[in-house]
Design brief:
Layout: H1 4-31, H2 37-43, E1 63-68, E2 73-79, E3 82-89, E4 113-114, E5 141-147, E6 154-160, H3 176-182, E7 185-189, H4 194-197, H5 210-225, E8 231-241, H6 243-253, E9 263-267, E10 278-280, H7 281-294, H8 303-308, H9 312-318, E11 328-330, H10 339-345, E12 353-358, H11 363-373, H12 379-390, H13 394-400, H14 409-434, E13 439-444, H15 470-473, H16 484-503, E14 524-527, E15 535-537, H17 539-542, H18 545-550
Parallel strand pairs: 2-4, 6-7, 6-8, 8-9, 9-12, 10-11, 12-13, 13-14
Antiparallel strand pairs: 1-2, 2-3, 3-5, 5-7, 14-15
Helix pairs in contact: 1-11, 3-16, 11-14, 12-13, 12-14
Length: 553
């Protein structure tokens, strides 16, 4: 979508923003050690492995919490109004003979398992600071956060993290506010990433979409164990952002996910019309063959044995890093058809959906161009970028988004790329789903959202960009602290999200009504702490949907 220069700027931007994530891990460790991956890396010892761990004495400032799961007892912590259980195995370690195999049941244990600290993140490339530097393939763990006390029948929210299907983990999303204010059991999960979770190769004895199968195993664990933590096993909402949002759409389309959840929340993922949604089997296998050759396993007859003989580090070194290499695969089995086709034909797991995006998804990337060069984009830069992205349609785009309608070239380019790459496929997905299931649409329109902590802001207003919605729903030291108005918006969003998880409709007394999105009345709820606040917005007009449709997007 961008010119070569633009792509180079975006690569630099990614590294800049990733540095913020990397720097934030140290801040998280200081602020709340028990909730960060960096803390477990710093304190890891043999007693904190996947095998059953004998519980130690709880810290003086916390009280232990003992819960019995179907595999054995787990001991977490109770601090104030919240209980946390971290690093619970939901499947067997996918190591040795289980590498590139479907997830298998975890072995039971009898002594209480110490779940006061997170476990390993799944292996991922270390090319960017956003990566969690952990090469331990023993990584299929989940974390449970609940309100303290003895409440029963709480709605359950299962969070699937983003990261381009290559980076991240579940433990980095601290869910105390979502659990306590929302009155919910929140489960955050790890799943195999990149080459270990999404590799497809015609000669490898392995199914595609292992990462999606891991997520299914975690959802089955939740159905079995939610009541032990105070949750309602019959009221599970699966929720994800970016790659996590695409995963949620895949669960709606995958036959193996039928019956594992009751509602869905999709954030910043255009599942109909976006190339980021899925890869074809041919695309995935072509990438897999290239990876095998890079690993020194070019012969199809011996590729399976050769690849399984490689170390974790060797496999990662041969795999494609960055944000474009891996996607869920339409393999004809785990994912028989793309979410786009499944939604269009009405052949999917039908549940109510809360679905939306941030108003300025591309703001961080465009800001990175300025940060990389030290100069604000000029009018000529704007024309160059639009021409490189849209070719013969560039004139029409420039006429639709004239510079004099925006405060700066950067703001104009943010609007263009947001609407083309995000808003259009997201609105199309909402319209497609609304023919079959209840849909509640939103646009996070807050004009002065928090930014990445420690990263200089560019010269233009950033609005609310990709990932910034996470600052409102989770506690994460990656972002600047919320202002008082932003904190009120965060509370409103948590109230809406948790009400949807409880009842399938986000509206509740004391908050502005959130109407259902339908084909005849495509209602979208604006979410803002600013002057316009919370209420109806004309999403299609604001994001030039008719124009982009006319270009076949």
């Amino acid at each position: 979508m961008f010119t070569k220069a633009g792509k180079r700027h975006l690569a630099i931007t990614t590294a800049i923003l990733a540095t913020a994530v990397g720097c934030a891990s140290a801040v998280q460790a200081e602020a709340s050690p028990k909730h960060t991956a960096s803390a477990v890396q710093a304190e890891a010892s043999p007693k904190h492995t996947a095998s059953a761990v004998q519980a130690e004495a709880s810290p003086k400032h916390t009280a232990s919490a003992l819960v019995r799961t179907d595999n054995g007892p787990v001991r977490g912590t109770t601090t104030g109004t919240v209980r946390t259980f971290q690093g619970i195995p939901y499947a067997a370690p996918p190591t040795k003979g289980l590498r590139w195999k479907a997830p298998q049941p975890a072995k039971p244990w009898s002594a209480p398992l110490d779940t006061r600290k997170p476990r390993s993140a799944c292996p991922q490339p270390s090319d960017q600071p956003i990566a969690i530097p952990d090469n331990n393939e023993d990584c299929l763990y989940l974390n449970v956060t609940t309100p303290a006390g003895t409440a029963k029948g709480l709605p359950v929210i299962v969070w699937i993290h983003g990261g381009s299907f290559v980076y991240g983990d579940g433990a980095g999303y601290r869910a105390e506010r979502l659990a306590v204010r929302g009155g919910a059991v929140v489960v955050t999960i790890n799943y195999r990433l990149g080459v270990f979770g999404l590799l497809a190769h015609p000669d490898l004895d392995a199914p595609a979409n292992l990462g999606l199968q891991d997520q299914q195993a975690a959802l089955r664990w939740v159905r079995r164990n939610a009541p032990a933590f105070g949750g309602d096993a019959g009221n599970v909402t699966v929720m994800g952002q970016s790659a996590g949002g695409y995963s949620v759409c895949a669960h709606m389309a995958a036959p193996g996910s039928a019956g594992l959840f009751d509602k869905a929340i999709v954030q910043s993922a255009g599942c109909v019309g976006s190339p980021d949604s899925t890869h074809t089997l041919k695309q995935a296998r072509t990438a897999g063959i290239a990876m095998a050759k890079a690993a020194g396993c070019p012969d199809g007859k011996t590729a399976d044995r050769c690849l399984r003989g490689k170390s974790t580090a060797e496999v990662l070194a041969a795999s494609e890093a960055g944000h474009e290499g891996y996607r869920l695969t339409v393999d004809g089995k785990v994912l028989p058809r793309s979410p786009a086709n499944a939604f269009a034909g009405g052949t999917f797991n039908k549940v109510p959906v809360l679905y939306g995006s941030t108003h300025d998804e591309e703001a961080g990337r465009i800001g990175g161009m300025e940060m990389a060069t030290g100069k604000a984009l000029t009018a000529d830069d704007y024309v160059t970028q639009v021409t490189g992205a849209f070719g013969e349609n560039a004139g029409a785009v420039l006429a639709e988004y004239p510079l004099n309608a925006y405060g700066s070239p950067s703001e104009a380019l943010t609007a263009v790329m947001t609407d083309a790459n995000w808003s259009t496929p997201i609105f199309t997905t909402q319209r497609t789903l609304a023919r079959h299931v209840p849909v509640y649409a939103y646009d996070l329109t807050e004009a002065t959202s928090p930014y990445f902590k420690g990263i200089p802001r560019p010269s233009f207003p950033l609005g609310t960009g990709h990932m910034i919605d996470l600052a409102y729903l989770f506690d994460n030291a990656l972002f600047e602290p919320l202002t008082t108005p932003q904190a009120r918006l965060a509370n409103a969003m948590i109230d809406y999200w948790s009400r949807f998880a409880r009842a399938g409709d986000p509206s509740h007394s004391g908050s502005p009504t959130w109407e259902r999105f339908t084909a005849d009345k495509p209602y979208t709820q604006a979410l803002s702490a600013g002057r316009n606040g919370i209420g109806r917005t004309d999403f299609a007009a604001d994001h030039h949907y008719t124009f982009w449709n006319s270009l076949g997007r």
